[in-house]
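Support request, please re-run this one:
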Amino acid sequence: MGSKNKLKRFKENETFSNVYQPTRDKLVTGDFELKGLWNTTVFKNENPLVLELGCGKGEYTLGLAERYPNKNFIGVDIKGARFWRGAKTAVEEGTSNVAFLRTQIELIDHAFGQDEVDEIWITFPDPQIKYKRTKHRMTNADFLERYKSILKPEGIMHLKTDSEFMHGYTLGLLHGAGHEVLYANHNVYKQEGSPAEVTEIQTYYEGQYLEKGKAITYIRFKIK
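Re-run finished. Output below.
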């Protein structure tokens, strides 16, 4: 994508009522006014709040929002030029249970209050396979602690990935730390009984992975 195009999208994001772009300073100093108040201020209801972390173009966030009109969804990504597509579609279609937040995932506990979130989806994250990249892996112990701090006590986590490595790493970590694995499937499109929300909502890249014959994996779990 050219820098001109990116700039245009950044500017357009600023006009969307469903896009929130707090500065890092605002989050870290605790001045972010929406923390703990997303439902009352943004969605103006008390429906369950669901995040998609690393939402990319926002296709999964939109797909879930369409499927569950009685839940509120927030796509989170640092790349505003990407989620511009999802935000624009939501505005054009009048989808009122969707918002987008531009921030780094490691600041997630500064953007949401304790027990504010009901569910978190992580879809197709970079597996960060090299050992020195472990700290950036989105299901490592540090990240799980951050998620736990914003999730309700019975809050649900979802991991959907095309990376067998990420699937295996996360399962091993969950079992080792005594977290509760509710469901695990290493090939959701080949096994019967896979959850519909996992197989019926697809991202553009997921379609490409499937064309190449890659297995798509899924884990549902609770952080204890």
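Residues 18 and 87 are 7 Å apart (CA to CA). The first strand starts at residue 19 and ends at 20.
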